[in-house]
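Worked example 3 (structure in, sequence out).
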């Protein structure tokens, strides 16, 4: 994103060196995150889960908006929605304000699957948190929040 690899922080280390130290922890977090999703039925690829979460957050989303959000082409987004619709997780309806536009909506089953994935992820993270002190958990939460803010606020370069 927008940080220079060689610039130094206030402790005199490069941002790249700090990023390298975080890599192992992030890989561990991602493994925990993915394992929880793999326990659900149906087992969905990450992109399909992301599509479902995106539609849940943006109830008036159309196919073009989904494609843009996921950074994929319109034909790819259409095939993705075809698979989600065939699985009973998503439905395409006519946009009430513009009958020429298709609106994407989660089905009740789609909402249950997302809730199941979220619950499993919460339980896995809570189990890991048992081995951390309150101060460590708080620091992690603050650090991840700051990361999300920086990642959202920093334009792609």
């Amino acid at each position: 994103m927008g940080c220079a690899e060689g610039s130094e922080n206030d402790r005199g280390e490069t941002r790249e060196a700090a990023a390298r130290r975080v890599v192992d922890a992030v890989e561990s977090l991602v493994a925990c995150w993915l394992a929880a999703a793999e326990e659900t039925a149906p087992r969905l690829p990450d992109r399909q889960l992301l599509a479902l979460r995106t539609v849940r957050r943006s109830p008036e989303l159309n196919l073009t908006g989904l494609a843009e959000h996921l950074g994929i082409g319109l034909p790819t987004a259409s095939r993705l929605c075809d698979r989600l619709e065939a699985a009973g997780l998503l439905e395409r309806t006519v946009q009430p304000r513009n009958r020429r536009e298709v609106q994407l909506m989660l089905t009740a089953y789609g909402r249950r699957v997302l809730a199941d994935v979220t619950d499993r992820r919460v339980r896995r993270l809570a189990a890991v948190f048992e081995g951390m002190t309150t101060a460590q958990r708080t620091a992690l939460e603050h650090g991840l929040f700051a990361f999300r803010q920086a990642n959202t606020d920093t334009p792609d370069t």
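Notes: The domain at 39-121 is CATH 1.10.10.10 (Arc Repressor Mutant, subunit A). Confidence is low (pLDDT under 50) at residues 1-6.
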